[in-house]
Amino acid sequence: MPYTKIDDSLTLYYQIKGDGLPVVFIHPFVMGHNVFKYQEALSHRYKTIFFDLAGHGRSSKGSKPASISGFASDLKKLLDEVGVEKAVLCGYSHGGLVAQEFALKYPKRSAGLILSGGFSKIDTLIPKLVINLVQLMVKFGQVSLAAKWQAKFHKLDSEDEYEIFELARRSDAQRSYEYIKSGLHYDSTSQLHKLDMPILLIYGSLEKPMHRYRIPFQKRAPQTQVVYIKSGTHQLPPRSHQEFNTIVDVFLKPYIDNKENQAGLG
After folding, report:
1. pLDDT (tens digit, 9 = 90+) per residue, 178-227?
2. pTM for this structure?
């Protein structure tokens, strides 16, 4: 299994499938890379990169507290190690905060930004209640309970539920708590104007409390595109994967067309 050493205490697990434009997928708390199981289908057109954040899945916990900024730095080192100079960042939920932070810290390494259920700051009641509930679970060492919760709400079928749970239950309680806490305090709103790369926000039509989070992006980064998946919930990558993958593919098509034109293939 492929691992890369980030520092003396931290080793990250990763998978790379396919060739072409690199797209890296970033998962939420108390989960692992396999929440993007169905995005592996995109590897027929893109170099898809999946990995487990520190303290999650098959990665080690490291010696440093987890933070959004720290995760972005870890990702930069991972991409350095695998020889990827520039990538499209696809973050789901809390993973979208890591994607934003990476794009802000390393704009020259960021080809585009895709956020599923994305937000620059979490400040609405229902999403915060859900996040706080999982935070309480891991605070008191109930990682398996939190993993069951995540697996139940992200499953497409019973096989998915089992696979997601098995990887999620390996999450370190302290690092999960720190990831959640860092995300709850994160706020990139005042920095969004610095994002000059293409941005795509994808929401489920049923996750109405999240829809308002598009507004700061549209105001401060007017190149932002927003797409809603009909009858979709927050858990779009696994549960609405066909529509999700199609939307991502359409968003990325200009990158491919531009590359082919530059190569004289258009």
Report:
1. 999 999 999 999 999 999 999 999 999 999 999 999 999 999 999 999 99
2. 0.96
Amino acid present at 161: E
d(C-alpha 23, C-alpha 256), whole Å: 12
Which residue in this structure is represented by tokens 């599923």? 116
What is the rounded CA–CA span in Å between residue 85 and residue 81? 10
Residue type at position 18? G
Looking up tokens 């299994």 gives: 1
